[in-house]
Amino acid sequence: MNAFANLPFATSRPLTLGVELELQLVSPRDYDLTRAATDLLASLHHDGRCGDVKLEITESMIEVNTQPRQDVSAIAADLEGLRGLLVEHCRRNNVAICGGGTHAFHRWPERRICPGERFAFLNERYGYLSKQFTVFGQHIHIGVTSGDEAIWLTHALNMYVPHFVVLSASSPFVDGTDTAFDSARLNAVSAFPLSGQAPDVGDWAAFLDHMAVLQACGVAESIKDLYWDVRPKPEYGTVEVRVCDTPLTVDRAAELAAFAQSLARWLLRERPPIDPAMQSLVARYNKFQACRFGFDAELADPLARCKRPIAETLTGLLDSLMQDARDLGCDRQLESLRRLVESRQGDATVLRGIARSAGSLNELTRAATEFFARPSRYHRHD
Amino acid sequence: MTSGLRSIWEALQDRLFFLPPMPEQADPLVLMALLLVAGLLVGEGLHRALGLSRIVGYVLAGALAGPGALNWLDRETLALARPVADAALGLLLLETGRNLDLGWLRANPALLRTAAAESGLAFAGVFVFALVVVGLSPAWSAATAAITMTSAPAVVLLTAEECRAQGQVTQRTLLLTAISCALAFVVFALVLGLIHAEEAGDGLNALIHPLWVLGGGALIGVLCARLALALAARQEAGGGGQVFVLVAAALLAIGLARMAAVPVFLSLFLMGVAVGQFDQQRVLAYTSLPQGHWILAIVLFVVTGAMLPLEDATGLMLLQALGLIVVRGLAKFAGVMATGKNDLPAGRRRLLGLGVQPLSATAVFMAAELAAFYPEVSAQALLLPLLAAAVMEFIGPQLCRRAFVLAGEAALPNREPPP
Q1: Containing H/E element for B219?
Q2: Is B315 left (phi over 0), alpha (psi -120 to 50) or beta?
Q3: Which 3 state secondary structure label does DSSP give A344?
Q4: What is the pTM of this model?
Q5: What is the per-residue pLDDT across A171-215, written as a single tens digit (0 to 9) for each?
Q6: Per residue in A250-307, pLDDT tens?
Q7: In this structure, what are the phi and psi dihedrals at residue A174, rounded to the nearest 5 degrees?
Q8: Closest CA to A292 of A178, A176, A137, A135
Q9: CA distances from A10 to A144, A147, A268, B108 (A)
Q10: Chain A residues with CB inside 8 Å of B275's CB?
Q11: Which of B157, B166, B243 to mutate to test the interface with A (most CBs of A within 10 A)?
């Protein structure tokens, strides 16, 4: 009897949202990553009304999770509450905190694994990859009503992985070097054997069969062993988008959540035809294009047998989503993303600009902590 | 054997006119080199065999080679090594001054309360102990308390580096040490006046000397900090030029302090604080001392070990020194535990109370400053803090290291075995 045979899919209200952000903990002395997570968590007192604060794999990371919310305004409020809580708590402990998908110049061998059975297991299984996994992402959960709907939405959202990557890209520097990528973070994720795309299965039952095979072969014990770009999360009743870099501000994180919610609503409403098998032919290439070239990426379209500039695709897509965004009450956030696509001044470009003008990656990270310390404009006005 | 060698040398001299006369004693540089190697070997040996802090080994090498034991390092050679030791202590205090993060204190005033409590209680405890139990005069009791109220910045800094420690216990130990240094230096300057008044009945010197020490230290520190920042701003950001400028300005400050008879440790500490405060453009914010400062640290602790008055120690004196250590230790521990309850969990505060215990080179050098003025009186009066420092030289680094390790903040090589 395998553990997946009757794995239930928790029902949640459709299109509910939840956001997870992995954040960098740096020393205000030199803005290098520092060992701080367990200390911060041990002395943090909060009521949990905005969500939770958790350890991540290494001591230089901390994760915040919002509460499940129906609308983006509530998500923005949660993110702002968690941001304010952590910025203040970090300040009292002489730690600085920031977004960004990678730290620009830390040395991964110096990272320390956090205490905990799960982290010890990952360190044991993946060796040096576990320390190199000190990269920082945003995960967005979208509520769905059933396992079958989750599988369909997972496949549908897979087509938009490059769009999420481009809008969130904030990791141009690794090991003190400009990688020429806008999002170098995903290269660290790609090293894991169970990363990539969900398998081409038609419904929840077929998905459970697939998981049973993986378990029987000793490949994966549970869904959390799978680092797919988009994956169903049965215990929450959600589909989880996992490809975004953690942006420099919580406002951008809320905008990405608005994009995810509007897109999911549009997809579930329109039910456009999807072809996971054909998409899988170009999925890795398209993701590479988005990571490497950002707004200048050109995506392969296997159905139309052509390539399309992502900036054009994104503009059209955001226009298509605007009515859904208005109905969901997050059109302001989507408008902001439209301006981002027009200006092409994403976080990666901003970071490169700072590095050029400041001439120091320490200063770059310091600027990132200042970005993160700014209060949210969405929460103040809403 | 020496006479045999001498006759061979002299025979050779008859033939080889360029040969100098047979050296009567080893060149001080040769001695220092041997001492460096001996310190390094003992330090590494104890570290590898027993897991002790390397600093313990350096001090042990100095104590064994010094006038109190084998006398390979006599007082003249010690005097020759003093500028190098001054430079080492000065550079480490520069770093300690840079660790005095006023921004952190503004964000978390509880830290100031903790620092005031642990330093204040240590001063009060030691003063009462020296006055009542040991029977020193009020001025020398105050001097003993001023010398021992601070933690040991060099030990704490090097231990944190040695363990590659990171975390709240480490950071707060460094900060409390920096604050206790600042407080101790001010109290020390005031005590200089008290000593002058008590020993010489000289009101003018009692008034002016503390001002000279504090004002001179501040002036040298600020001027050299400004100079370092101005020159560093003209160097390539993050390049070796900026490190060079910082070290050169520090050496200039050390030299000026020695010329003006202002304590080097005070001037360099104030220079460190000034560099941190005036560096609005963050020109030197990311510049660290070059790794070579470990060589200077070995010299510092070997010399410190040799300066310990082990030959003067009697059983009673040692007992009194142990009493001082207990009183000081409990006072510091109580100060840390009594404050910051909402700021740091109790377990972490206990380790912080352990981390601030070291007492070392700064105390020895403070005592040396005093001894220079009243050598006859001070030889006896300063024996208590010096013996306490001697004992703590061997215990302090271990306590500090233990605190970082127990806090889980030290990067020990065997903590994470390879999978």
Answers
A1: helix B203-232
A2: alpha
A3: coil
A4: 0.91
A5: 999 999 999 999 999 999 999 988 999 999 999 999 999 999 998
A6: 999 999 999 999 999 999 999 999 999 999 999 999 999 999 999 999 999 998 899 9
A7: -140, 140
A8: A178
A9: 9, 8, 18, 44
A10: none
A11: B166
